[in-house]
Amino acid sequence: MPGDVPIGIHDLSVATTQYVLTHRTLADRNGTDVGKYHKGIGLMSMSVPAADEDIVTMAATAAAPVVARHGADRIRTIVFATETSVDQSKAAGIHVHSLLSLPSAARVVELKQACYGGTAALQFALGVVHRNPAEQVLVIASDVSKYEMGEPGEATQGAAAVAMLVSAEPALVRVDEPSGVFTADITDFWRPNYRTTALVDGHESIAAYLQALEGAWKDYTERDGRKLDELSAICYHQPFTKMAYKAHRHLLQHCGHDVDEAEVTRAVGHTTGYNAVIGNSYTASLYLGLAALLDNSADLTGRSVGFLSYGSGSVAEFFAGTVMPGYRSHLRSEAHREAISRRLDIDYARYRAIHEHSFPVDGGDHFVPRETTGPYRFAGLSGHKRIYER
Ligand code: HMG
């Protein structure tokens, strides 16, 4: 019976960009005390894509090792979550499907609800595997976070992709019932179709996140979810890493617990290592938190881990998973550290040029010189069509 089969995350792979801008460089340029970035919001650096990188190239880079390890015979569904879509109609996942030569007997779809989209994709995948446990689903969350230069959000930019293989008998994390969900119509962070940068009311967005956390937790507990002290760690959505600390303090208070800072660090400290140096990666951020936790904690076998997904607008979901025996031999810790350490430091002038770069939209041929040393690249536009190459 499908209902008896454990289902969850069988493999997890992270990719990011060619370049990195440190918060030290940003602080020196805009006259901000770097302590505000390092300590105040908990960010050290942010990933910056080269002109020939985007959500598709990061996604393909993250997914390729997953397909290489497991093959694609059982993958009939690819779900791509993003809020940095490259087309209003065609799913970005079709470009990934093509770059990775995935089977034509597959469905590919793109999902959006701000940073919550990655969790929507995971839930979609769990449903597909529940219906037929012989199938595997490739879930990809890939985003580039971009705000106007000089705005408070600028320090919380970043970019990354996470690819997850969802299957029965998962090697890493079983996703458990129930889920607590919450939706409220609020405009805390948004990006109209005519803009390349997001708009945000930063402080309102933090309040909206905490309200959504309360709502999702309430629904979760009403459905007999785990108690807070049964969770060994909680992966929170991390627009900046201090948000995870804020969220956990808020949840402790909401549940009537004293806020013990050692307890807060115990619950979230191991989830922030990748987000602190990559920045906000929107849909991927929560799962970068999981990658950091699995890669960098002491043995978590059999432990329960909580997940709080938040997407502005807003939708939140709280759920828990159980870390599977033997998970450590399936991790990609070395590759993740390499993806982060291989990035090239850029100065402010280079960052500014990349930030201001835009393609002509005249339908002509606009090719991009090779910049990325990654395995996939965006080669340019021709006749309004995007061209990718290996
Ligand atoms: P701000 O106004 O630049 O900063 O906005 P601040 O004045 O609030 O300071 C930030 C923290 O640094 C404060 O700590 C300061 O005290 C501290 P807190 O009171 O929060 O604990 N600080 C210092 N610490 C040490 N040394 C110093 C120093 N100076 C100050 N010298 C804000 C910050 C995050 C609002 C801004 O960066 C922003 O607007 N970011 C974008 C929006 C965002 O990330 N919102 C988060 C919740 S919404 C969300 O998560 C969804 C999202 O991912 C999108 C999606 O769903 O798709 C964004």
UniProtKB/TrEMBL annotation:
Keywords: Acyltransferase, Transferase
InterPro entries from the UniProt entry: HMG_CoA_synt_C_dom, HMG_CoA_synth_N, HMG_CoA_synthase_prok, Thiolase-like
Gene Ontology BP annotations: acetyl-CoA metabolic process
CDD domains, per database record: init_cond_enzymes (cd00827)
NCBIfam families hit by this protein: HMG-CoA-S_prok
Source domain of life: Bacteria
Protein's name according to its UniProt entry: Hydroxymethylglutaryl-CoA synthase
EC supergroup of this enzyme: transferase
Domain Hydroxymethylglutaryl-coenzyme A synthase C-terminal positions: 179-252, 271-327
Domain annotation Hydroxymethylglutaryl-coenzyme A synthase N-terminal: ranges: 7-168
